[in-house]
Amino acid sequence: MVGGIDSGNEGSIKLHEELGFRESARMEEVALKGGELLTLVLMQKILK
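RE: above sequence
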């Protein structure tokens, strides 16, 4: 399972980590929001 989160959303990243997700990649400056370039953090959880 994969989730994509804005790197500035530390609360969501922490929540995903608590749910067993781990950071698998970062994509720098892939989106523009309010004139600001955002970095996307990809969080992955292996389902068994």
